[in-house]
Specification:
With about 210 residues, the protein is α+β, with helices and mostly antiparallel strands. Helix content is about 25%, strand content about 30%.
Length: about 210
Amino acid sequence: MQLTLHKGGTLSRCRWVTNLREYVEDDVTESGVRFLYDYCNLEEGVTLRDIFLFIQRHTALLNVVLNKYCAELVADGLSGVVDETQEKTTPYGDEFLELYWTLEVDTACNALEGYHFPQFHVRGVLLEDTDERGVKGDKVVLALGGSRPCELIDLEVRLRPELLLFDTQAGEESRRQYDRASYTLGHILYGIIYEFAYYYAWRMEVQG
């Protein structure tokens, strides 16, 4: 069975029906939380808004399952107002959001970390030459930092198809890449909400 999250926040399921001897696709949006552990793709062009619209349909449960700030983050994303008067101080232009897997092996204690949920960041481009990051037009990877969901709500979300694995004792030279990384619906939702919630909780603490 394969799930696909579509534009507009709908969820479909494609499954093999033995008696029909064919694959059948049906809409499972309303019962979507039943499929958190099933593999899921994103329709090309799906944005953070589309994913938040799906979460909004199941906020009562996902606020418990994902994070206690889930409802507040979704409300900010879908209804928050971006402060257009605030001057942009970073020389970056946001291009899309990306979920990705990076697993770390610690051979010193025979441990594997990073497999609970994927990481989430912004892919952008330099708008001007900088001493630290490169020249105008270079591609850059950015943490969400203090970004509010409403500031990124219309950016496309993509699933990186490669998984990276490296040994923390050996360093970057041990990095290996594997193709065809898989994501469940739960991975997608949790990875996004966790990253926003981390900075949201920090802002709440700073602001008192």
